[in-house]
């Protein structure tokens, strides 16, 4: 029974992570400019947030989900402002002439930034709930083993996507010269900034 929930969770985590949004753009940019480790750890932050939302949906923690939905305006505002900040700093950043060394502090910052961007989108909990229902896993019937397998699957599925994406993108890292890296920063920075503006516009509606 738990194996079935694990496999469904893996599929769900992979499918939810796959669409390219602000986190995807950020992951691609970091994999190109700073290397595969930074790209993957950035995705790992998003995978952790997905697992948190999967936990809320899978265990039916209505108090938490209702709180996040009722405060979604402030969460969207915080997320939108943070995306604008990330986009602006990325746009203005100067690419290094060589890949950044893998440092704990830098990796931790990469992890936290994408976790924050993902967790401040409370509508994700609605997506998880709807997809859980569609896949027949809306309720684990109080079985914590099944719920745990489901949540672990979401994390594994999301992590698998970010590992594939960062590994694939990093193959092209050596293809970019300094000028190419500048364009990567400009395009990704502008794209992330636009995502932030769109998030802020939804708050003003």
Q: What topology emerges from the helices and strands here?
A:
Elements: H1 2-17, H2 22-33, H3 36-59, H4 62-70, H5 72-92, H6 104-119, H7 123-134, H8 144-170, H9 178-204
Jot down its keywords.
single chain; 205 residues; mainly alpha; globular
Commentary on this structure:
This protein is mainly alpha-helical. The chain has one domain (2-204). Helix content is 80%, strand content 0%. The protein is built from nine helices and no strands. It has helices at residues 2-17, 22-33, 36-59, 62-70, 72-92, 104-119, 123-134, 144-170, 178-204. Helix 3 packs across helix 7 (123-134). The longest helix has 27 residues, at 144-170. The radius of gyration is 18 Å and the shape is globular. It starts with a helix and ends with a helix.
Approximate strand percentage: under 5%
What best-fitting shape do the alpha-carbon axes yield? Answer: globular
Would you report the number of β strands? 0
What share of the residues lie within helices? over 70%
Average residue-wise pLDDT: 76
Order of helices and strands: HHHHHHHHH
Biggest β-sheet strands, sense, barrel: none
Distinct helical segment count: 9
How many individual domains? Answer: 1
N- to C-terminal distance: 44 Å
Rg over C-alpha atoms, rounded to the nearest angstrom: 18 Å
Give unreliable regions as ranges: 96-102
Structural class: mainly alpha
Oligomer: single chain
């Amino acid at each position: 029974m738990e194996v079935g929930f694990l496999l469904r969770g893996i599929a769900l985590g992979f499918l939810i992570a796959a669409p390219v949004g602000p986190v995807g753009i950020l992951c691609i940019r970091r994999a190109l400019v700073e290397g595969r480790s930074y790209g993957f750890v950035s995705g790992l932050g998003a995978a952790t947030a997905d697992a948190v939302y999967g936990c809320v949906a899978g265990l039916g923690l209505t108090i938490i989900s209702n709180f996040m939905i009722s405060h979604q305006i402030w969460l969207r505002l915080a997320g939108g402002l943070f995306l604008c900040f990330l986009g602006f700093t990325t746009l203005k950043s100067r690419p290094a002439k060589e890949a950044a060394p893998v440092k704990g502090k830098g990796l931790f910052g990469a992890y936290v930034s994408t976790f924050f961007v993902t967790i401040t989108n409370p509508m994700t909990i609605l997506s998880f709930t709807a997809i859980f229902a569609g896949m027949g896993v809306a309720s684990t019937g109080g079985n914590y083993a099944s719920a745990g397998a489901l949540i672990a699957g979401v994390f594994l599925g999301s992590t698998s996507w970010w590992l594939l994406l960062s590994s694939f993108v990093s193959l092209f890292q050596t293809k970019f010269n300094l000028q190419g890296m500048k364009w990567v920063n400009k395009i990704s920075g502008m794209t992330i900034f636009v995502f932030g503006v769109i998030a802020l516009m939804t708050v003003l509606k």
